[in-house]
């Protein structure tokens, strides 16, 4: 086996040194009836070339070269080439959690930079090293709010990503944390009056997403006022991180849970992605996950370590803020590199291109469909209602035009009828939008 | 960075600043293509949702980005550089073919919501991995959704709770041996269970009498790592399962140490009801400096109705689809389908090995650990003489008499060119040195490690300060973790603020 660095003679020598006559002797304390005395029924050992061929065939079945008009929590942005050039260095991807800071300063400094950038982007004061993704990060943020307030219920906006809400429901079910839903108004934003009425003295937090699942940007300041007036915390989820280049940061939030996939992480059929939680300094002792902090060595030189770990499972066990251990360090590094590439000026310009493409797509596609949720600002997504089932439109766009179309919303929002969620990013070409519009138009005429 | 600061360092790469410290207005590392649609007036489009002050991100050029992250990388130790015997973490070789296939366009570029007729390749990968993991574990059903080991534990304990609830009583407690990872008790608490610690016996295994005494109708299950964190396979496993099952409890196996069992023994054959795997440990997906991982959960048939959705199922015509009609499901534990990119890598690893390669891998992992044990026994105290599997745990008992602790030995090991073992864990061994070489170490590397450990043991006698002040070869000396926690500095701040 080509990954194993031993000759048969070396194995024999080692067995002799250990003082056993065969390798099976080292497994002899596993009761005989549980020892597997046959080959596993899995495919035979394959050559590297065969493995590459097999995955190329699977990649071809998935199709390549499609234009993508779909977001919904997973965004198709350009990935600067320096990202893979850098993260392919073994020093980055074959290291583990920086438990030994003297030989992990690269990882630790990169985490520190990532935390700093997330604070700058979100308007928060501290950020952690990463969470699994936006959905689990949102769940952890809600539980964090429960610990901070000592209150035991939470309100989730119905315009939060439906799968995020499903994950939060899974997390909350045995925490004694009943969840209720806050409706959206006709402009796609949260219904403020209804929200105000729904918050009780037992509401730990209100979770919103902005831009929300429909692409609509929430009025975070106004919501915060309502939420804070009742002593609850405001948790803001962000699924499309590029929006922060041009959209006002949710600075009035108490906790921000962000999915950083948009910052250079490939779509990769839904994962791995990179969540992150940011909050106010005064709440740092309740933040889940790892934190890198600055310190000095014995000679006074600046260095970085994992810190405040008394919050974490390996110290606090069942009293920890979370059970999270392995997180998404390499993808936080990806985000760090991506943000270095675009920087202070580039991220706003990138976001502006998204805004322009989405505005064009909304106008072009919207000409023969009903645009839902008018009257509130949007970033790069929008919802269209068609007379035909949008799943059928998506199927045809894929088959005839090599376009991955919209996400039909019937499964998540039956009340919206034949509605679908569309997205345009800087990578969406005008030609693809025009082609999609022609399909839509043709369908509308025959409808 | 002041010019004085630069002059005092031997080489600039020895003192790479923060990326922010290279920033200067107007530098850039990007160029956007011209827009092919009309520009929009952002202020008109967004109104008061417009961001007025840009985030203080760095402004740097491409060469500075390459140098910055390359220089930082040289401060990291990694599997690619040498032995990384971090116990319970299974720091094995990360094959390059894994990285190549995970980056193929049709794989890395697949959108999770793209129509299923153009997702057949992705679904086929998930199905193939699921099938092979079931054969490897001897279990009946599996979800790939959990994002890491701890997330898998959470999913597994939720399955236990859902199953018991369906039987009429979710019960109150989860038993956890005192040698367990901290994630186990933290997980049980997240699922609303009280944690009851179970003592180990003098062989480092579960104390059966204590288990018998604790086990009653309030106990939902036991979370057992097997082999446990002492590297010991609990040979009473069948009895343990029997005690639990007799009173209606379930056996959860933490699969963190599955690298000791693959192709040699299957948890499904020895009474385990539900378990997780760590693809980033046993199945070679890279640790990435702390993730991403992946923590599939496999279970027996009686827990299958409760698995998270969606699941990949086969249509009559042989094509695959995602099915979320699972009425008793515990729900989703993550958006989309899990860390798909890790599934690709783990499957490539299994294909590269085949049944014979996986068996040889496990045998070599156990061989390496026993070789180290044999060579270091006597130099270091071995608290349990029970046979070792893939890792061996020593204690610093002999050295601590000289004032040298496991943490000191670990730091000195850095000077010899190795990553330290896991320090002070498991907690049942005071001053533990938890060593897991994995199968990836050649004999010569093991011999160098043995030599280094023996040399440090001698230094503990001859020149203890050398050990106590280690490391001496790194860019930074020991870092002040107390100060970091007392007055946390968790971010860089722009000077103008």
Description:
The complex is a heterodimer of chains A (447) and B (497). With 447 residues, chain A is α/β, with parallel strands linked by helices. Chain A folds into two domains: 67-78 and 345-446, Aspartate Aminotransferase, domain 1, CATH 3.90.1150; 82-338, Type I PLP-dependent aspartate aminotransferase-like (Major domain) (Aspartate Aminotransferase, domain 2), CATH 3.40.640. Helices cover 38% and strands 14% of the residues of chain A. Chain A is built from 13 helices and 15 strands. Chain A has helices at 8-18, 48-62, 82-87, 90-93, 105-122, 134-149, 162-172, 192-198, 220-229, 313-316, 329-366, 390-401, 430-446, and strands at residues 67-68, 126-127, 153-157, 179-182, 203-209, 233-238, 255-259, 275-279, 292-296, 302-306, 370-371, 381-385, 403-404, 407-408, 419-423. In chain A, the strands form four sheets. Chain A has a seven-stranded mixed beta sheet, with helices on both faces. A four-stranded antiparallel beta sheet of chain A has the order 11-12-15-14, covered by helices on one side. A two-stranded parallel ribbon of chain A has the order 1-13. In chain A, a hairpin with a 5-residue loop joins strand 9 (292-296) and strand 10. In chain A, helix 11 (329-366) crosses helix 13 (430-446) and helix 12 packs across helix 13. Chain A is globular, with a radius of gyration of 25 Å. The mean pLDDT of chain A is 96. Chain B is an alpha/beta fold and 497 residues long. Chain B folds into three domains: 3-73, no CATH class; 97-350, Aspartate Aminotransferase, domain 2, CATH 3.40.640.10; 361-483, Alpha-Beta Complex (Aspartate Aminotransferase, domain 1), CATH 3.90.1150. In chain B, helix 4 (96-102) runs antiparallel to helix 11 (340-376), helix 6 (120-137) packs parallel to helix 11 (340-376) and helix 11 (340-376) crosses helix 14 (443-462). Chains A and B meet through helix 1, helix 2, helix 3, helix 4 and helix 5 of A and helix 2, helix 3, helix 4, helix 5 and helix 6 of B.
